[in-house]
User: Fold these one by one.
Assistant:
Number 1:
Amino acid sequence: MAGDMIGRDDLAAALLRVAEGTGAVAAELNAADGQLGDGDLGITVSKGFAEAAHTPLPEDIGMALLECAKAFQRVSSSSYGTLVATGFMAAAKAAKGQLGIATDTLPDLVGAARDAMMARGKGNLGDKTVLDSLDAVAGALQGKQPEAMMASALDAARETLAEFKGRPCKLGRARMFAEKSASLDDPGQLAFLRIVEALASRPA
Amino acid sequence: MAGDMIGRDDLAAALLRVAEGTGAVAAELNAADGQLGDGDLGITVSKGFAEAAHTPLPEDIGMALLECAKAFQRVSSSSYGTLVATGFMAAAKAAKGQLGIATDTLPDLVGAARDAMMARGKGNLGDKTVLDSLDAVAGALQGKQPEAMMASALDAARETLAEFKGRPCKLGRARMFAEKSASLDDPGQLAFLRIVEALASRPA
Amino acid sequence: MKKILNSPASYVDEMLEGFTAAHPEFYAQPERRVIARAGGAVKGKVGIVTGGGSGHLPIFTGYVGPGFLDACAIGDVFASPSAEQMASAIRQADGGAGVLRLYGNYGGDVMNFDMAGEMVEMENDIRTTTVLLADDVVSAPKEEAEKRRGVAGMVYAFKIAGAAAETMADLDEVTRVAQKAADACRSIGMALSPCIVPQAGKATFEIGEGEMEMGMGIHGEPGIWRDKLKPADAITDEMIDRIVADHPFGKGDRLSVLVNSLGATPLEELYIMYRRVKARFADMGAEIVMPLVGRYATSMEMTGATITTIALDGELETHLKAPAACAYWRVV
Amino acid sequence: MKKILNSPASYVDEMLEGFTAAHPEFYAQPERRVIARAGGAVKGKVGIVTGGGSGHLPIFTGYVGPGFLDACAIGDVFASPSAEQMASAIRQADGGAGVLRLYGNYGGDVMNFDMAGEMVEMENDIRTTTVLLADDVVSAPKEEAEKRRGVAGMVYAFKIAGAAAETMADLDEVTRVAQKAADACRSIGMALSPCIVPQAGKATFEIGEGEMEMGMGIHGEPGIWRDKLKPADAITDEMIDRIVADHPFGKGDRLSVLVNSLGATPLEELYIMYRRVKARFADMGAEIVMPLVGRYATSMEMTGATITTIALDGELETHLKAPAACAYWRVV
Ligand SMILES: Nc1ncnc2c1ncn2[C@@H]1O[C@H](COP(=O)(O)OP(=O)(O)O)[C@@H](O)[C@H]1O
Ligand SMILES: Nc1ncnc2c1ncn2[C@@H]1O[C@H](COP(=O)(O)OP(=O)(O)O)[C@@H](O)[C@H]1O
Ligand SMILES: [Mg+2]
Ligand SMILES: [Mg+2]
Ligand SMILES: [Mg+2]
Ligand SMILES: [Mg+2]
């Protein structure tokens, strides 16, 4: 992050970090998903970010985010992949025509992604999905200084997991296993935390 | 056996003895058949004789034997049942119109059954089947006094089993298991021995 | 892994290659993982597409054909196709009169098909509509019926919607008939043993020797009870009881019934079940029309069966009986 | 026992009850364990009967229908019907032009069918002939080909003999065509897991996890080797190699191929095999006509597959393609 603007190269560097980080935890995420679903979440996330990281990005940050969306759509057809693609696309629309994202617009971008993903997946906040993580992060970023954002996002992603401990999943495959799902982390929320951790792994 | 004539009532009594005797060894015969085939031989033999034993027999000994053939055909469709029915039918044809079987015609009757069963099943002597037992018994009865016949038949049935120890089955399902079948008794020969033993179990 | 395959990664693509090679009179694969009618889209006819994970043959690809569907996108085993593949299937099905998306209610499929619809509307100006199958009565209570998953009811919906499209009705009309067919279906499943997803390499679930699970889904989604295996009539009775509790049948009603194997359960046992099904509906005074007994929607080698009913009125019955042909079902 | 049934003793009779109830347009059960065409024998047409043990649906009963068989006697699972039942099937099939007995070469069936033939000749004055299927190439060497057991080749023989009879040819002519079809068939099987005969209540054989057996028969008769499971292409190659070693195919030859599941093996995997089958015959320069891929001759829930080839000349191909209909196979 060059000061309070996130440019194409920042995005590319971030994608590389996340691709690396999620690659390292793919097995963990597959296992978490396997408890309640089909066990493909680690593959979905790591393949999606790897594809995005290897895609040449245009300078227009909106178009760059659109390429990320397309990359996810290409390699993944699992729910999480489609949702991430949807989120990238919403951010892309909002940022189109600019060379960088002003950090103070980040809360709105995350919020836009959250809203688009809710519309796409017909999910609600409180269903114990990745939507809750996004919502928490969007809220946590609000009014924060650029240098405090990463830490706030991390806290918010962690707290979301803690907050939903003991509550059943109400959406996706995991919905079928209400009892079992209550005792487990939602794999999508866990994946989101790992993504944020990877983002934070090297100060940008 | 009333002297040297076997009448309808002798046949009925003999059927009862064999039904009882084979009923008692049905499990043994199923197990023997199960080693090489479908494990139904005990059922086949015991059901067949039980049905014959419960069928009212006409006085004409030929027609009585025909009823035995029909009884087997009704309740059993396994190879052994069909063969026994075929044997009974051959004997029936030879004895038709008489009130009893002269014991000195017994070797020929057994031989006639053997020949009909060979024609029906397209088997040869030496294939390690019930045909070999019948052939040995037919030979052993030749020229014997009525009172010596039962013992000779028993010996012949026993010796057949001994003679084929180590030789492979060449017919029926067991043919598929040449190696394994060599180390085992042919279930049909064993069943034949059990039938003769049941016949001999009480002096007629 | 008791499966005949070369490699888990090539399972679906080699399957599709053999599939089109065996039935070139019905199927073509114009793009990877997209199956279309051998003759292509029918000009002026509403197109019908479906899609979903592999591993359910004849569902999904098998029901492409005259009187049935026009194209289909297919994913990895038990996994959604991508939105791109779905968009491509929609383009293949388009004969200029718009395209109906007719498929089962699974989250991933819905998201991808919605996205695909947005794509073709933007890029190709194709009008699309959606009808979702949500026929599994045990997957959600009646009050939340729209959350139910879609199972073998699809077979009826494909047939009936396909017949409606064949009359050259317009998109709204075909969509109406398809929705009516979907709404008339009720299904329930039970499973005895799992199947193996090639890429996972292990069973989708575990179930004890001598046990069964009532209400299990086609991907091994948990059912409503698991206990020791019951007699065929008791199993069939419970399945029918649960269906008719949701959609009663009475004197003079007409319906069709599909008794479907999940794969390994043999025809012999489906007929033992159908015998009871027929007696039960006869007791209610309802008449079964064109019963289907066989493997119409499977989960590879899973052991178990599903029962689907579809309540018929004159319109649905006419479409059900209309001529149609695919490699697995021919109505003449 | 992972089977859906009420009691082992009623398995076959309840199955037949459901079978005729589901397909009354094709099948009737005029006597216990005897299935005949719904419309009865066709006057003046040569009748064709088959028979054998239950547990192989659609074989045997399923292939009764116009263009196929006229009647069928069916025994307990994997057990021969009785001679009386066979005689009754012959009488059902008799339209006054004599009856062909067309069935698989199994000792018990042969003895009973011979006896049945004698019975109807004596009692009903029906002329009968016999053609035996003996298509399993690994069950005996070429020199003793007449000892081979009959497996899925029956499907082709039923279709072709049925078409010949439909032309109103006389008994000798229908018998000639049937024999020619039988002689043109070669089959081989492989198995991965057993099935359970209801009355036995246990698996027909044991086979280790990760193992396969090449050449196994449809009742679990031992094959030629047992080893760890090979890739689909290697399995298919060996099966084809063994078939063509017995009956070579070369440039310009025409044949049909049936890739058949023993029950549990899913269509997906049959298509993976067919893909290879097609490539292999293309390499030989031979052309596959009307390939069949599916469950045409099963052993209930056995896992495994068989491949059958039938070498075609103009006459056989014409009969193969002639219209015919039963609940499992319709040629239009
Ligand atoms: N409709 C939805 N809306 C929001 N989040 C969802 C939805 N469906 C799934 N998720 C999230 O995605 C995660 C599972 O993703 P993934 O493994 O890709 O799903 P699947 O393999 O079932 O398609 C869940 O843990 C949940 O957080
Ligand atoms: N073709 C045949 N000729 C003579 N004996 C035979 C023949 N086939 C079988 N057998 C005899 O019958 C016995 C098996 O009988 P059975 O169990 O009824 O056969 P399956 O169940 O295979 O029809 C064999 O052990 C053999 O002695
Ligand atoms: Mg998943
Ligand atoms: Mg998935
Ligand atoms: Mg036996
Ligand atoms: Mg038997």
Note: The radius of gyration of chain D is 19 Å.
Number 2:
Amino acid sequence: MALKHKTPLIDELEKGPWPSFISDIKQVAERKPMCEDLLGVMEQSYMDKEGHWKHGGIVGVLGYGGGVIGRYCDRPDLFPAVAHFHTMRVNQPSSKFYNTDILRKICELWERRGSGLTNMHGSTGDIILLGTTTDELEQVFYELTHNLDMDLGGSGSNLRTPSCCLGKARCEWSCIDTQAITTDLTNEYQDELHRPAFPYKFKFKTSGCPNDCVAAIARADCSIIGTWRDDIRIDQEAVRAYAAGEFAPNGNAHGTGPSALDVQKEVCDLCPTRCIDWDGKNLKIWDENCTRCMHCINVMPRALRPGTDTGATILCGAKAPILEGAQLSSVIIPFIKMEPPYEEFKDFVDKMWDWWMENGKNRERLGEQIQRLGLREFLKALELEPDPRMINTPRYNPYIFYDPADVPGGWEIDGVAFRKRHQA
Amino acid sequence: MALKHKTPLIDELEKGPWPSFISDIKQVAERKPMCEDLLGVMEQSYMDKEGHWKHGGIVGVLGYGGGVIGRYCDRPDLFPAVAHFHTMRVNQPSSKFYNTDILRKICELWERRGSGLTNMHGSTGDIILLGTTTDELEQVFYELTHNLDMDLGGSGSNLRTPSCCLGKARCEWSCIDTQAITTDLTNEYQDELHRPAFPYKFKFKTSGCPNDCVAAIARADCSIIGTWRDDIRIDQEAVRAYAAGEFAPNGNAHGTGPSALDVQKEVCDLCPTRCIDWDGKNLKIWDENCTRCMHCINVMPRALRPGTDTGATILCGAKAPILEGAQLSSVIIPFIKMEPPYEEFKDFVDKMWDWWMENGKNRERLGEQIQRLGLREFLKALELEPDPRMINTPRYNPYIFYDPADVPGGWEIDGVAFRKRHQA
Amino acid sequence: MAFDPNEPMKDRITDIGPPHYEQFFPPVIKENYGKWKYHEILEPGVLVHVSETGAEVYTVRVGGCRLMSVDIIREICELADKHCDGYVRWTTRNNVEFMVDDKAKLQPLIDDLRSRKFDAGSNKFPIGGTGAGITNIVHTQGWLHCHTPAIDASGIVKSVLDELYDDFCGMRMPAQVRIALACCLNMCGAVHCSDIAILGVHRKPPFIEHDRVGKVCEIPLAIAACPTAAIKPAKEGDLKTVSVKNERCMFCGNCYTMCPAMPLANAEGDGIALWVGGKVSNARSVPAFSKLAVPYIPNEPPRWPTTVKTIKKIVETYASDANRYERVGEWIERIGWEKFFEKTELEFRHEHIDDYRLAMTTWRTTTQFKW
Amino acid sequence: MAFDPNEPMKDRITDIGPPHYEQFFPPVIKENYGKWKYHEILEPGVLVHVSETGAEVYTVRVGGCRLMSVDIIREICELADKHCDGYVRWTTRNNVEFMVDDKAKLQPLIDDLRSRKFDAGSNKFPIGGTGAGITNIVHTQGWLHCHTPAIDASGIVKSVLDELYDDFCGMRMPAQVRIALACCLNMCGAVHCSDIAILGVHRKPPFIEHDRVGKVCEIPLAIAACPTAAIKPAKEGDLKTVSVKNERCMFCGNCYTMCPAMPLANAEGDGIALWVGGKVSNARSVPAFSKLAVPYIPNEPPRWPTTVKTIKKIVETYASDANRYERVGEWIERIGWEKFFEKTELEFRHEHIDDYRLAMTTWRTTTQFKW
Ligand code: SRM
Ligand code: SRM
Ligand code: SRM
Ligand code: SRM
Ligand code: SF4
Ligand code: SF4
Ligand code: SF4
Ligand code: SF4
Ligand code: SF4
Ligand code: SF4
Ligand code: SF4
Ligand code: SF4
């Protein structure tokens, strides 16, 4: 069937081996005008080298302050079917396992009430239902909650949809129950997620181990990353098997198949703290110097495993560049047990949010606020003691704000007495 | 002979093996009241835990805007002999070799017209004549220039006395003629040294090689550091001799005497770029990866020597913390030949100072100005092309000031045409 | 039952949160939760995880356009029903994972996946994205949905992945290579910490629609939005508006986010900057930001040839020069930036030198460098 | 001829610069300038340099108080005349070097130097300061001459070097250890890049002598002097003066430098901060700043026992824990700061956490740390 708009430019994107989103959209465009016009908008953009969406308006569902991104086309004259093209963010199940039943329900709903296009998934983790009109929003929400047992995710100045790596579900290294934590936090903080009361957005992300497969340290205001406090578990026989070439190194990530692993070169020499010795027979890890970087475990998954005294490191403040430059999260709690009902952690979250909300300027992310007011102030608010694990290096500039409480007489100098000792 | 003031506290500093400056001052105090009272001031400070010198006044010699630091005691009632106690900075000969003739003349002059106390040397490098009265300043200056062929060094917002390591005079590694450079610059820029016309102080320091024995990179607005462009010279036989224990490693810096050097462990493994191979017989250096850190040369001075295509790296901007925080110097010219009459270098200096003086705020060091206006602006003023050797890492923040000259149409957007393409 | 617009609060259900994950676990996952012992990549895109119980789960990872129609999702459902007892998952980088609990079920699944193509010829389910290869490109909306993009997203990703297709399906890289794209400086995605990042940039300051500013913007918010304080309140005749000091503008677009009357998208100004050497994992080296490699490449729809070629060049240089386990940033760290620019034949320009707040921490304060 | 105050410009000589260095070179130095081939430390403080010509020069380095009276300089001259043909030099760290061109002349020189003591007992010319030892402490004026010090200089240096005397005369350290002292934040010396730095700090904000400010200070300069913008113009009655927002003051003393009516020296406030891990050389690792180890130790004249003890503890921990060639900073880099604080038993406090402009670059943005 011929589509409404000629699209010679984007048709070029049907070529080549990688799945073509244009081919995919075209399947639906044959029966959905929204998709037809969307292809038109895309072609127009490809001609103009400029996008054709207007600045988002505020649309949403009653009682929620987020979950919908309003979007209008700036050429409704040419592309009327996408004059409105709002996005709905649907909170994904933690770690994104699905059964086909729920997926088909989503498809059915979105074909009926939306464009039939989605993002699986958005960068934050939501299921993105891409493109519908204002009048459909409440309908979709109703059906989601009533028929699919699903709810909207976050947008705006509120908690954003938490997400996590698959952790214990299919990974041998997870030190914490990533899905359980993520689901618990999401449910605990439904109000914060749906009703914006924060200075700006706030994100939680949870990875099971320092490999950080959900990129928590780069993308979450609060990054929860699994770790352990005791010793790496070693199966010496398996180490020898790696050395002997019985296993594929690095879980065969290099496609070498079983092949002799040069344990000294590929493991010991790449250990960032050089805390591993290998004498050809036994591997010795000086765990007191291990920084749990995962490298040796990654390379020899059949021989090494994280310890069993597990928990998480909590880091705060990651964000994209706007406004004050990008940040990675910084260590705030070196170790915390993460077991239900996560009271210690939630207590920490409450204090963190209180401080942020009390001091936050409009559109100031937590990380920026810590920058502005100082890590010290943040720790004070959290009632946490300073720990060298929170820093890469102590200060090198001598501009120290000494606490007047530590100074005899505080900030006062007796000027008269001073001038008795020293003539002006 | 009993001295005027009782000094029980500072007398404690006569004990112990390290030379006692108190014992030394006391020698002179027996015949010089200034030193007697100086001991009194010190004792008073030791009692009060506060210094007793007033904020410096402006004193100097005619026509010079620096070289003298005015100093007055804040208890002239108690210590009249040091009511005035000005310091004179005398420009040291480059790298601080002396004969006893000149030293004796200095002593004679300073015993007669000053306190008889000196600093050998000040942190910048000057001979510091410590403590005299205002009326002696011109006298001392006259005698210095007429009888000792010596001149004052810098202070105030001008060029400060340049200094250097001893270089080729007694070091096998010097890639440049440190003394010659330092003396030439000092003479070339006498006007800048004696007549403040800068926004703030400016320092040159010159080291013969990257060991940087005059700490140029940390303490000079312009750091000149010797280096080479070709290959490290290797005497393979001497390497083998080190391995065999015929020589003392590291010039015997560890007092081990001749003893077998583990070339792999102590040289190759500590090379920051790991560009050295040692097969037990021959040493191979992959010079294209060498960063000329000096380590291998330091450890095997009898086997390795810098190359012969020598010159200097020029780095700029080092300073102490006041105002914007401490800075180390940054690479500005990766390599420059430094041969008399140093025209290329002086041309660079002129451009650098022009830019600094044109844009400098009061009390703004060069490094701070580069910070404020950007390295890019500095390079532009110097007519230097950007080079990756100037940076540790390219920018990671996306806030790029694109040059409008590179953009079709520059900063202009045709708003009317835009709104034709895009409805508001 | 359906929504009644006249009684919007009737039967309203809110704040139920996401469906519980456990109901979506295939039995082998549920039974072996927390018991996994080790894994191995059998071939690119195919993993086995072995449990302490002896159970095994085989995973086939396929590249997804994360922009997915209901049709392709339904096709995924069909596959999942056919081979995987009706379960499937998505990864954190938008790949799709099909899991089977028995090796015997593996080959039929793989064959089925490989057989499916769009009419125009592209593969629907390329298998790969594991280990030391190039996995899916995390990306954002671009011209398909957002209002602030300087570039498209999906089209560039498609063009780049067509070129790198063999490395999605292979594992010949020294280590994993993570590529990401963001269509503007908001960087919706982890592009600031990617091995290779494709970033949409503007190069013209906003033009100000004085007649609209007062109506559609809160002027104080627009002013506060500017990181370099380039925006000042102004008057045009009677109109309250703003002015922009162009020399101070570094084209971040944050003003436009706050004020629709300050657009800065422009065909001639906009384009792509490439960044390299970031990482997220704590493996070996610490997480790191991506650094600027190429300040600007023009938008070249529909296939972005210069961008594609430049990325390919970086990837090939890395592949041939880095040591095993060395991520792009670790490789550059070892060889030095001067060698990176030499080997990749990229030009080093003034834009590479940082001039924002932390700029001085990026200058080279040592005589150590290479010729 | 002498200066005539009535005719100050008569015969005036200016801008002649320093005397030419070459005239002060001993013959062996002049003849072998640029020809040196290698060197060796024969024993602590004693070096030999060998020339391509076969010539040798033997150097004996002795620790100097850089505060020297004419008497001690004359004694140095006497020694130089007796043993060294009348030549002598000072090093960049204020040690004195006696050179002889013949091994036979060495022992008599050494014996002579060792024999000389002050009446009260201290050595005049301790031999050492070479190689992997602790050389002379670079320092500044302190209570002896400057107007802004928070601590004395020479007295603390003497106290510390008495304690570390054996390591000045020995070479048992893993690498060279450079200690420096500065009596205030102006840091006249390279204390910001020292293995161990002793820094004078204030802890009370300036008190403002309102009746003097207008007279003795240029108020705009005083205001501009404050890095944290804590100083504002103010009025006291009719007097133009300034006020200081104490919460913003970090005690840098820069206001006092510009305005004598804002003193901040105070017996109870002032004291010592210790910094560690800086270096200047480009050997192996790049030059580095010193980092805060101990935020505050009270002034304890005359012998500063707590400071001395703390430095000794750091030195001994380093000596026993570091690898050969590892500078203090390289050692800490390897073991990590958490281990540094553990091993030295120093307390980690809020002051260690930076809060100035580049603070965020010092935070730990990785899960990598040690227990
Ligand atoms: C849909 C999504 C991109 C995608 O294609 O996946 C998205 C889309 C937008 N983001 Fe984002 N962000 C999305 C994940 C992110 C992420 C990644 C993450 O969450 O892990 C980031 C970086 C991490 C972070 O939070 O810093 C991100 C950083 C931003 C920023 C910059 C925030 C900052 O502090 O630097 C903005 C600008 C703003 O907030 O004004 C922004 C703003 C926007 C807006 C709302 C545009 C705007 O200026 O108001 C975009 C709407 C696009 C549209 O029309 O569909 N978006 N945004 C992602 C959300 C999907 C989901 O819910 O799953
Ligand atoms: C005498 C000397 C210290 C010493 O005991 O050796 C010295 C003494 C003073 N310095 Fe200095 N500085 C001395 C070398 C340095 C150095 C080291 C160097 O030059 O290698 C530095 C650090 C490097 C640098 O330049 O940044 C240094 C950084 C400062 C600063 C901070 C400058 C900055 O930009 O951060 C000040 C404060 C100022 O300029 O207002 C200062 C100011 C002062 C003043 C003039 C005090 C003042 O506030 O005006 C001191 C006078 C002391 C007195 O009464 O005798 N002095 N000053 C050194 C000069 C001797 C000489 O000429 O050889
Ligand atoms: C499925 C997924 C988690 C999920 O919940 O969806 C996952 C799964 C695994 N990751 Fe990952 N990682 C996943 C995203 C990530 C990310 C996040 C990202 O890229 O956005 C990272 C951080 C990337 C970074 O540093 O920039 C990540 C860094 C790692 C690492 C560290 C590699 C390194 O050397 O830096 C390992 C260890 C290894 O591969 O040796 C690892 C290892 C693994 C293992 C082997 C874990 C295990 O034992 O099962 C899994 C299979 C690896 C493989 O594909 O070769 N995973 N992994 C994600 C798959 C994404 C995809 O579709 O391509
Ligand atoms: C005499 C002097 C130069 C001068 O013009 O006066 C000098 C002389 C030598 N230095 Fe130095 N250095 C001198 C100050 C320095 C400084 C500056 C400072 O400390 O303020 C440095 C930088 C210190 C830093 O990094 O903080 C310095 C860093 C070095 C290094 C690099 C050591 C390292 O591993 O970091 C070497 C190489 C070595 O020792 O292996 C070196 C090596 C040498 C050699 C072996 C060079 C040679 O072949 O003659 C000389 C004898 C070393 C010795 O004493 O063991 N010299 N040397 C200075 C003696 C100072 C003193 O009295 O103690
Ligand atoms: S972050 Fe760790 S636990 Fe989670 S999937 Fe990755 S490797 Fe496994
Ligand atoms: S986890 Fe990392 S730091 Fe720890 S032993 Fe293994 S490689 Fe070394
Ligand atoms: S800086 Fe180099 S050339 Fe100068 S004395 Fe030190 S080691 Fe020798
Ligand atoms: S000078 Fe340094 S970088 Fe060069 S080869 Fe020697 S140790 Fe390696
Ligand atoms: S990166 Fe920018 S343009 Fe792209 S989706 Fe995010 S906000 Fe929109
Ligand atoms: S684009 Fe950014 S820098 Fe430019 S005016 Fe707008 S907010 Fe300011
Ligand atoms: S460090 Fe401070 S107190 Fe000491 S001499 Fe320098 S300016 Fe004076
Ligand atoms: S001491 Fe420093 S911070 Fe405090 S008021 Fe003075 S200039 Fe400002």
Note: Chain B is about 30% helix and 15% strand.
